[in-house]
């Protein structure tokens, strides 16, 4: 079974989700929808980030990546995955989120051909896991409290605070949210930070007193020496490697230097199902969890869910909220049950449908490359 065609739909969106002081300017949140077709009549789907320029994403997919994939067998996923790294190294250094969608679409095809949901095709460990609401940055402290309470009322077991900074205000927000939700509700902290080491230690000590589950990305991921010292100093688990380049090779450096207690990965930024599974297994070998983070795209978060259910060492599912803003291009909402658990779809492949009416409505460019 060989790949015969690659199609993309550049979908233009206009969302204003970040305060100006955090994002500089609000991204358009464009998405490129991808379809790989085969000579067996089985198609695979994925989506790619195109937040600042869908034209760039489409150009890379058709001019650089399509020649590597077209005409190749779906069973050559590992070889294709490594070939894309070779192209990245020697020719172009393309955006970190571009190999992933190709790999996801190939795995979608393979699982459909086996007539299994993807997580079972990978070797299912379970069919679901608890979800936590992961909020955006907010300008007002009360917005964090109200959002956490709203998702607790919906039945989710936890909430992640993307705190507003500076660090002293972050401490106040963490305390206000804990007081509001009570001690029996899971809380996580992710400042997407630029702390000094001293500031991170102070914030981390406060999170320990408040009973937060983990402290995520207080520094840039390449600041390994600071992470190593923070992990040595704090009792709360430190989560890192979300933006680390190089898939499992990059994450291995953080593990080797004891610069993370929990590693992060996802099918968009860590080169697809293949790259994310490699990181999960690497972490497992060191007795660590790989907590998979959102792709900000509903369809790719379904792929995340399948990977999470195919491994043992991922404890939670990240539900980026407000969920309606990030559902596209998925037709139905992410499958969260009444317990607040994310449940893997049971149909073959990724097991969900794309919203083609919305894709067509938002599409500003449709391109095709053939073998």
Descriptive account of the structure:
- The protein is 42% helix and 19% strand.
- It contains 14 helices and 13 strands.
- It is globular and about 60 Å long.
- The chain has helices at residues 20-23, 54-69, 77-92, 99-113, 118-122, 141-153, 167-181, 197-210, 224-233, 247-256, 272-285, 298-310, 323-326, 356-362, and strands spanning 3-11, 30-38, 44-50, 128-134, 158-161, 186-189, 214-216, 237-240, 262-265, 289-292, 317-320, 341-343, 363-370.
- The strands form three sheets. Strands 4, 5, 6, 11 and 12 form a five-stranded mixed sheet that branches. The protein has a four-stranded antiparallel sheet with strand order 3-2-1-13. Strands 7-8-9-10 form a four-stranded parallel sheet, with helices on one face.
- The model has no long low-confidence stretch (mean pLDDT 94).
- The chain has 371 residues and is an alpha/beta fold.
- It folds into two domains: 3-115 and 356-370, 2-Layer Sandwich (Enolase-like, domain 1); 119-343, Alpha-Beta Barrel (TIM Barrel), CATH 3.20.20.
- Helix 2 (54-69) packs across helix 3 and helix 4 crosses helix 11.
- The longest helix has 16 residues, at 54-69.
